[in-house]
Amino acid sequence: xxxSAWIRHAETDDFWLLAALAVAACGFGLFRGFIHxxxxxxxxxxxxxxxxxxxxxxxxxxxxCELMDGPPIIAPLSGLHCTWYQYAIHERRGSGKNRRxxxxxxxxxxxxxxxxxxxxxxxxxxxxxxxxxxxxxKWYGPNRDSRPRTTGSRWFLLGGRFRFTESLLxxxxxxxxxxxxxxxxxxxxxxxxxMLKSLLREWKADTQMLVERFDRNNDGxxxxxxxxxxxxxxxxxxxxxxxxxxxATPVHTLTDTHDARRPYLLxxxxxxxxxxxxxxxxxxxxxxxxxxxxxxxxxxxxxxAG
Length: 306
Description:
The chain is 40% helix and 26% strand. The protein is an alpha+beta fold.
């Protein structure tokens, strides 16, 4: 019996299960394809900034990874020093057709580290980031604490009961990053802007005080020119309350945007390589969507025709 004949005579539950899987593959391919299209466009369209002159908001940076002062970040499996890691330990269980890999342990680093360029340094919070390491190491071993080996038997590499995977970002390695850039400290930092907005809201709630202090033409209202005087006075008060703030060293941070339209990406690959990788995955997902849609269409039309 050929496939077309099977479609026409298959049990209803079997047919609709296959059709549902085809539709699901199409939907999944479209969804993931558009996500990768969005990431690719963001990487290509957002200009690269220097840390010292970067605007507050969604920013693209390029530099190198470095550790912050304090205890080092150590990869749990290999024991190597790194700035970020992701790992998993799997155990092979069962036999024959029931053989499968079971995840015993996995984890991802959320420790802060630095991106350094020629103008300064930015604290990277990797929580929520989509990280693309330069490579992922995989090895096998006879017990759970097996460490990776640069040399060894083929049995050790392929026949172990336990499988280990580990991805790292290493100190000194190039780093591409795009995410939410914020500056705290310094007279121009975002913390002073927040305090200024808060003080202005407080003053706006006290209309009588505003009129008494800033109504120069005595019309009972605050005009545009008088409002500029209000802002200047509020700014002076913020600075006066924090006399040491103007001379403080600003701290730059890059964090998750929590906005699906503005992905948070960290990559040890150069921007051009990252774009090519996203392009390949984009094509792959759209091919999956096309194949799933074509199969679903063929299934339904053949069934109805029969």
